[in-house]
Write a structure and sequence with these properties.
The protein has 412 residues and is α/β, with parallel strands linked by helices. The protein is 49% helix and 17% strand. It has 17 helices and seven strands. The chain has helices at residues 13-25, 38-62, 109-121, 126-137, 143-150, 153-161, 217-229, 246-253, 263-271, 276-290, 295-309, 314-322, 324-327, 335-341, 345-358, 367-382, 392-402; strands at residues 69-79, 82-91, 168-183, 186-198, 204-212, 234-240, 258-261. Strands 5-4-3-6-7 form a five-stranded mixed beta sheet, with helices on both faces. Strands 1-2 form a two-stranded antiparallel ribbon. A hairpin with a 5-residue loop joins strand 4 (186-198) and strand 5 (204-212).
Length: 412
């Protein structure tokens, strides 16, 4: 079929269907360089171009011009379903401007672009995409061309990063992860700041993506001001790590927000200063503190921890005492909510999923390259966030009581 010109006027689809089925059974692909459908696509395009030429010549005659056909020009067309040689009609006056496949066009952009964006969104590198297109479709697309195609994401990303947000978020998790990016011939570390919010409906959402040289409270302040400018009026509970100055930055923008320091981060930092032979025993005693059934009981066990370990590890005990108000907020809530807010594990879990898409990258060629891939990863991950969090009806009912007047459930 590939070497025979198809007569579309007398085309027998049923015969083509039988022949296609036989070729599929013999192992021939539907698409690709020698695919079953490739010659049909070629003929349909050529027939459409001939129709465009007929319309153009008719318009010329109506305008009194003596224009006529002048043979055909051959060029290789690349598509997401294969490559083929296309015959494009020419006219004597060279005034014909085809719309379907333009004069200097050699790639049918829509299908190919969508294919490349789909592969890129799956976490493939430019080189892997190039190899895939070559193997599957017989296309030779350079990494530079792939980069230009993925750049079409930038306006979409900009719009998404500046979209309006909800007025109230019951819970927000804030954390950063780090990547290597090449800038001015040097590899630099970039902090990627992410804000994961839980809406009044219980569904998770990424409220923003931000980059800076290093994680710091000063930059977090600008991040928080940005989400306020995009419509966020109130955050009930913010779960954060122990970054110095972070609680103050939140309070400066959202003064009524309750700060819950991540207990897991506090535990990890504590164990850095406990020698290995003591860690097991220390953790058994520390677990009585953060797993206590009430704040009073937790404070009792904290005193016991100080009596037993205070002389040997005074800096560790002092850190728990100094940060206790922000570490212990979760004790006032029911178990369902405690499990969610006492750690930033939810946003860290999101970061682990992002790493699956970026793990093949040693260092990104630019901040935009990093931004494009993280955006694609976000969209893939958030596709699964279509249900409220577990036990959310109970949680939001309790929050409505604890934060009287700050959540309007009747309007939902």
């Amino acid at each position: 079929m590939n070497n025979t010109k198809i007569d579309l006027a007398n085309f027998d689809f049923s015969e083509f269907q039988k022949e296609a089925i036989n070729k599929l059974k013999s192992g021939q692909s539907l698409t690709g360089k020698d695919g079953i459908l490739t010659p049909l696509i070629k003929e349909i395009l050529e027939a459409a171009l001939d129709g465009e030429m007929d319309t153009h010549l008719s318009d010329c005659r109506e305008q009194g011009q003596a224009n006529r056909r002048n043979g055909k020009l051959k060029k290789t067309i690349k598509t997401g379903t294969g490559s083929f040689e296309l015959e494009t009609p020419r006219d004597r006056e060279s005034s014909f401007e085809p719309e379907l496949v333009k004069k200097r066009q050699t790639v049918l952009n829509e299908s190919l672009d969508n294919k490349i964006l789909s592969l890129y969104a799956a976490g493939m590198s430019y080189e892997t995409i190039k190899e895939h297109l070559s193997d599957m479709y017989g296309l030779d697309v350079s990494p530079a061309k792939i980069s230009l195609i993925t750049d079409k994401l930038m306006p979409i990303i900009t719009e998404w990063r500046n979209r309006p947000l909800e007025a109230v978020y019951p819970i927000v998790f804030l954390d950063a992860m780090h990547f290597k990016v090449r800038e001015e011939g040097k590899v630099r570390s970039k902090a990627f700041y992410s804000i994961l919010g839980v809406g009044v409906d219980g569904r998770k959402d990424i409220l923003g993506m931000y980059f800076s040289e290093n994680e710091g409270a000063h930059f977090w302040l600008s991040v928080l001001n940005d989400i306020r400018a995009r419509g966020v009026e109130d955050i009930l509970i913010a779960s954060i790590d122990g970054l110095k100055g972070f609680p103050e930055a939140i309070s400066a923008v959202f003064p009524k927000t309750e700060i819950q320091l991540c207990v897991v981060h506090q535990i990890r930092n504590s164990l850095k200063y406990v020698i290995s032979k003591d860690q097991k025993a220390f953790m058994l005693d520390l677990k009585l503190v953060y797993k206590a059934s009430s704040k009073d009981l937790a404070e009792h066990h904290l005193l016991e921890l100080e009596e037993k370990w205070g002389k040997k590890y005074p800096a560790v005990i002092k850190s728990w005492q100094t940060n206790w108000d922000s570490l212990s907020q979760y004790f006032k809530y029911p178990e369902e909510l405690r499990r969610i807010i006492y750690t930033t594990n939810i946003v860290e879990g999101f970061h682990r999923q992002v790493r699956k898409y970026t793990k093949s990258k040693g260092a990104f060629t630019s901040e935009n390259a990093l931004l494009k891939l993280i955006y694609c990863a976000c969209q893939k991950i958030m596709e699964k966030w279509n249900q409220p969090m577990h036990n959310w009806a109970l949680i939001i009912s309790q929050l409505h009581i604890y934060f009287d007047g700050r959540i309007n459930l009747e309007l939902r």
